[in-house]
């Protein structure tokens, strides 16, 4: 007989709606006071259907929030130098307040070089090394959107992180690594793991807070979840599957994010929130000390 879920769901869709409402208010204020709406530039290389869908969805959300969008679609054969040149031009354009490079960009392109062409004060997706450094040192700047969304969810559900053992399964530069640094800044004791970690199950079983970001469907088994743990599933795999075996994990966890409807909506909400904030900062409508530390 299947066990009854006991975990409380962390509703990212509802919280994201609140964040988007606040972003829309900020965008209206910028537009009213400057005569120019905040603008997010999206850059897409190639014609990957999933990436194109994500970009269209983000542009539609921008429109609803009163944020203008400018889209640059480049052919799959675009070189690293050509992509860097295009992003540099957007970085220097005063009409653009935020830049999003949709990834992946193709194996032949140096993705890190492309990311680093984004001016830090327009890095609303939090992908540059300067943004990561500012975040790690607790300095002003923009945070990687998915980790930022995770922290907002934890705050919304009053999760006290001080002294808790947080386990992050995943080590990507824009998800796993920054998530761990943000948790560390909240006084959690953080363990980084990944798909090659030895005896991963035993480490997961010790987690008071688990962030699954490894990119493998149902990689974390429900029976390995500590009773009462907070489970953040940042994975999204074909078939609407997360990185955690949700049904089994929900019988043990205290709080858990669903897939979809958990972390995903928060990522887009934070992207638009940071775009609206970037426009306010660049327009002089927000305190200068909120500017990314490396932008001046």
UniProtKB/TrEMBL annotation:
Positions bound to NADP(+): 170-172
Locate the Tetrahydrofolate dehydrogenase/cyclohydrolase NAD(P)-binding domain: which residues?
Answer: 144-281
Q: Which GO terms describe its cellular component?
A: cytosol
Listed under GO biological process in this entry are: L-histidine biosynthetic process; methionine biosynthetic process; purine nucleotide biosynthetic process; tetrahydrofolate interconversion
EC number, UniProt record = 1.5.1.5, 3.5.4.9
Which Pfam family is one of this chain's hits? THF_DHG_CYH
Tetrahydrofolate dehydrogenase/cyclohydrolase catalytic domain residues: 10-125
Q: In which pathway does it act?
A: One-carbon metabolism; tetrahydrofolate interconversion
Q: Which catalysed reactions does the entry list for this protein?
A: (6R)-5,10-methenyltetrahydrofolate + H2O = (6R)-10-formyltetrahydrofolate + H(+); (6R)-5,10-methylene-5,6,7,8-tetrahydrofolate + NADP(+) = (6R)-5,10-methenyltetrahydrofolate + NADPH
Task: Please name the GO terms that the record assigns under molecular function.
Answer: methenyltetrahydrofolate cyclohydrolase activity; methylenetetrahydrofolate dehydrogenase (NADP+) activity
User: Which keywords does this Swiss-Prot/TrEMBL entry list?
Assistant: Amino-acid biosynthesis, Histidine biosynthesis, Hydrolase, Methionine biosynthesis, Multifunctional enzyme, NADP, One-carbon metabolism, Oxidoreductase, Purine biosynthesis
Describe the task this protein carries out: Catalyzes the oxidation of 5,10-methylenetetrahydrofolate to 5,10-methenyltetrahydrofolate and then the hydrolysis of 5,10-methenyltetrahydrofolate to 10-formyltetrahydrofolate.
* PANTHER family (UniProt xref): C-1-TETRAHYDROFOLATE SYNTHASE, CYTOPLASMIC, C-1-TETRAHYDROFOLATE SYNTHASE, CYTOPLASMIC-RELATED
Q: Which family does it belong to?
A: Belongs to the tetrahydrofolate dehydrogenase/cyclohydrolase family.
Q: How does it assemble?
A: Homodimer.
Q: What's the protein name?
A: Bifunctional protein FolD
Question: What are the leading ranks of the lineage?
Answer: Bacteria, Bacillati, Actinomycetota, Actinomycetes, Streptosporangiales
The gene designation is folD_2
């Amino acid at each position: 007989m299947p066990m009854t879920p006991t975990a409380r769901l962390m509703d990212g869709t509802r919280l994201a709606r609140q964040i988007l409402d606040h972003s829309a208010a900020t965008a209206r204020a910028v537009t009213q006071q400057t005569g120019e709406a905040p603008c997010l530039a999206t850059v897409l290389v190639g014609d990957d259907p999933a990436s194109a869908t994500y970009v269209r969805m983000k542009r539609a959300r921008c429109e609803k929030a009163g944020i203008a969008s400018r889209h640059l679609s480049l052919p799959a054969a675009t070189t690293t130098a050509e992509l860097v040149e295009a992003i540099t031009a957007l970085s220097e354009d005063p009409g653009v307040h935020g830049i999003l490079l949709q990834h992946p960009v193709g194996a032949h392109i140096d993705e890190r070089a492309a990311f680093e062409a984004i001016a830090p004060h327009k890095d609303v997706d939090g992908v540059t090394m300067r943004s990561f450094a500012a975040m790690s040192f607790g300095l002003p700047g923009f945070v990687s959107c998915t980790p930022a969304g995770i922290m907002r969810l934890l705050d919304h559900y009053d999760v006290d992180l001080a002294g808790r053992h947080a386990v992050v399964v995943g080590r990507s530069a824009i998800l796993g690594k920054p998530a761990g640094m943000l948790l560390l800044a909240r006084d959690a004791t953080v363990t980084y793991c990944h798909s090659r970690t030895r005896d991963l199950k035993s480490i997961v079983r010790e987690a008071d807070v688990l962030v699954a970001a490894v990119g493998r469907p149902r990689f974390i088994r429900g029976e390995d979840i500590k009773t009462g743990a907070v489970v953040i599933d940042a994975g999204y795999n074909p078939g609407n599957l997360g990185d955690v075996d949700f049904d089994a994990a929900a019988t043990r966890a205290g709080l858990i994010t669903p897939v979809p409807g958990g972390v995903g909506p928060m990522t887009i909400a934070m992207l638009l929130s940071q775009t609206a904030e970037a426009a306010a900062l660049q327009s002089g409508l927000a305190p200068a000390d909120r500017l990314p530390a490396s932008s001046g």
